[in-house]
Amino acid sequence: MGSKEGLTRPVMVRVLDCSPADAARTAAVSAKLAVECEDPSLYSVTERCLEDLTRDNTDVLVLDLETIGGESALEPFAVRCPSTVIIAVSAQGSVSRAVNAMRSGAHDFLTKPFSLDALASKISFQLDQRKPNLSIRSEKTLLTKSASLEATDASTPSAARKAGALDQLIGKSLPMQAVYDQIVRMAPSQAPVFITGESGTGKELCANALHKLSDRNKQRIVTINCAAIPRDLIESEIFGYVRGAFTGATENRAGAAEQADGGTLFLDEIGEMDLMLQSKLLRFLQTGTFQRLGDTKSVKVDARIICATNRNPLAEVSAGRFREDLYYRLHVLPILLPPLRERRDDIMDLAQIFLQRFSSEERRGFKGFDADAEVSLLAYNWPGNVRQLENTIRQIVVMNEGQSVTIDMLPMLIRDPSGRTTSVIDLSRERAKSQPTIRPFGTIEPLWAQERRIIEDTLVAFDGNIAMAAAALEISPSTIYRKKQSWLERSC
């Protein structure tokens, strides 16, 4: 049985590990959580744990993969407690094993031996995502008011926006609301943040918002674009150098890490970093110290690390281009920024803001978009995301005059994405032709039933392989497990 949302009560933590010593050590994580916890329940036998999961409330379940027989044995746990935070642990850690565990229903993975702080951070993040009404210990509240905001309460996205921290991030869609919530929850933490997303989705804006909402915002956020700096210069840019370290080094120079002392160091496009430099960065993250290029003395700084990449970090690790140990050190608080095609509700809001801005800059009189232009903007897939939309609107403003943006003003690529050279379709007529037929209410299939049909058809297509079906549907395997559990409950 998963935890029941809406019920205010202490958190229940269960640990399954055949080693009593490991189980007791893992259970001590409850003392590090910022929520009130019941006494943890420890198990060494899988069957006994499964029985209690079926009968009793569970908020957090930490499982040793060797005890249950591997990551493939996670399914019964995911089905029995669909709303429970499941953390898989193993002494035989690898990227492929972590991926398989999460595909099979785990929410996160840790390699033994792990620190209780690391486990507590992962559990706290997952609990925050579920937003249960748990009793928070006032003396350990994670979302304390930022000292920089003084009397302003920025513990919610709306309050943070009023404080100006989220002004640069635009969008009211559900995917963006989830991002705002993550930013507000993660900002007070000192743990590293790992931002992923396609080019043009706003990763640097996200990093700036995290810094503004943190208690470090009186100090600088220093940004290094790892893709824009030559490999032979990037080490000196991050860690600095002393006079005589190389030809042309005529004076000592502090690097980005030293300049960010007390503030935030943002490493953009970290996937482009050379493997040798990744090793030095890992040591810096572990110890908080580094040596300037050409120096023998260590420098200690206190900087929060935020990094970003437009690549798939796990794929980079598997390909040997990114250190696995560095990935696990950085990937503590992940944020995935959605592409613009997955937040179409925001397209016209963004377009209107860009139109107003550039019309003012270029002294044009544009006020809005006509209906056909709107349809084309909404239908286009925007592979370059918000940056492409911004540049498109600027081009329109510079190259045209008028009060409304018409379809003829749009670039041909957006008017006709397929590259056809035929005449422009009269979209208003097309819309008039395609009015939906009115159907009797009783013939409309409920949304949950449509979901079930689609998921079950996909499972049949992949011979019951949940991981492959989830990948095809672009959802997580744990979502399928939870849907199956909800169908079972409906049929009872």
Characterise this structure.
Helix 15 (347-362) packs across helix 17 (385-399) and helix 20 (447-461) crosses helix 21 (466-473). The chain has helices at residues 20-27, 46-55, 65-68, 75-80, 95-103, 116-130, 157-162, 174-186, 203-212, 231-239, 256-259, 275-287, 313-318, 324-330, 347-362, 371-379, 385-399, 412-415, 427-433, 447-461, 466-473, 477-491, and strands spanning 13-16, 41-43, 60-64, 85-90, 108-111, 193-196, 221-225, 264-268, 289-291, 298-300, 304-309, 333-336, 368-369, 404-405. The model is unreliable at 132-153 and 420-434 (pLDDT under 50). The two termini are 15 Å apart. Helices cover 42% and strands 11% of the residues. With 492 residues, it is an alpha/beta fold. It has a 5-stranded parallel β-sheet, with helices on both faces. Strands 7-8-11-6-12 form a 5-stranded parallel β-sheet. Strands 9-10 form a two-stranded antiparallel sheet. It contains 22 helices and 14 strands.
Key structural traits:
single chain; 492 residues; alpha/beta; 5-stranded parallel beta sheet; 42% helix; globular
Mean pLDDT: 82
Low-confidence parts lasting 5 or more residues at pLDDT below 50?
A: 132-153, 420-434
Major sheet summary line: 5 strands, parallel
Distance between the termini: 15 Å
Number of helices: 22
Strand order of the largest sheet: 2-1-3-4-5
* Structure classification: alpha/beta
Radius of gyration: 26 Å
Global geometry:
globular
Approximately how much helix is present in the residues? 40-55%
DSSP summary, beta strand count: 14
Task: Please report which band the strand proportion falls in: under 5%, 5-15%, 15-25%, 25-35%, 35-45% or over 45%.
Answer: 5-15%
Domain Response regulatory: 14-127
GO molecular function, one term: ATP binding
Modified residues (4-aspartylphosphate): 64
Keywords: Activator, ATP-binding, DNA-binding, Nucleotide-binding, Phosphoprotein, Transcription, Transcription regulation, Two-component regulatory system
